[in-house]
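Note to self: user wants both folds in one dump. Writing first protein now.
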Amino acid sequence: MILVPLAVLTAEAGEQLEKAKPVSDLIREHAAQGSFFRFVTVLFLVAVILQVLAAFPSVLSRWNTLEGLNRALATPWLVPATSILGVAAALFLIYESVVTGHSGAASVWSGISADGAP
């Protein structure tokens, strides 16, 4: 769950990169990856919330208006299903983090030789 605010922070860093570097295909690709990464982060957050609610349905028992949701959360297959969803979402988030980071590194370091000269 701590990844969500960190994703927002790194997205801000990516936007600063976009402003600091001249527009190129690599910068545009990184910006697109960053936008998709934000979306994946939100999906991960939703998956985690569903997983917590399925594992601890008593959290919702305080609100009588959510009684129907409480009964739905009591189904025996929901905890394993949300666990699988949570793991899949986490793995996809890690993958997208690597892809987005790689595209950012490529956009920063493209055109720079091994000795640091452009």
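First done. Writing the second protein, which came from a different request thread.
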Amino acid sequence: MSERDRIPKWREDFPYESDNDEYITRRDATRFLLLVSGGLALGTGLVWVRARTPGQPPEPRVALGKAKQLAPGEWRVFGYPDADTPAILIRREGGELVAFQQKCTHLACPVAYQRSAGGQGECLSCHCHNGRFNVATGEGVSGPPRELRPLGRVALEIAGDELFAVGILHPGRA
């Protein structure tokens, strides 16, 4: 077989050389585009199906004891929505009961309740980086948390004289 027989006919008609001739063909490019498009379509379909399926089970109803158990200015830690997720229950100095998830939104250090002292109002504080949260809303007011999302607020319900944690409210809701 001669040298001329080994050269494809199209090379004779288009004798231009390029360093990238052997890297990709139109057929390979089309296969790649079809594969990527198919993957994106499949991913979109899975997201759509998951969005259409019923949501997560309702959050548990956890008994926290007697509603009048805490005196104004006192607090305690409990687990919500499970025993491994810390939350903090506070009876504010004005008598209002509030509860928040106890992990700081900066680096997940625990937050603690601080009563009014020295002209500063009551707050939730994170001692790791001197962060402070508003005890009424959970919004960060100083330190690294002020630029992050607020603490998750735990919804409370009083039935008779019993206190229950019944859900986690999304930031921005009371």
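Dump finished. Worth passing along: The radius of gyration is 31 Å.
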